[in-house]
Amino acid sequence: MIYLKSMIKVIDNSGAQLVECIKVLRKNPKNFASIGDKVVVVVQKARPISSAITGASAANRVKRGDICRAVVVRTKKELTRSDGTVIKFDDNACVLINKNDEPIGTRISSVVAKELKEKVLIKLFH
Question: What's the pTM value of the predicted model, to 2 decimals?
Answer without folding.
Answer: 0.84
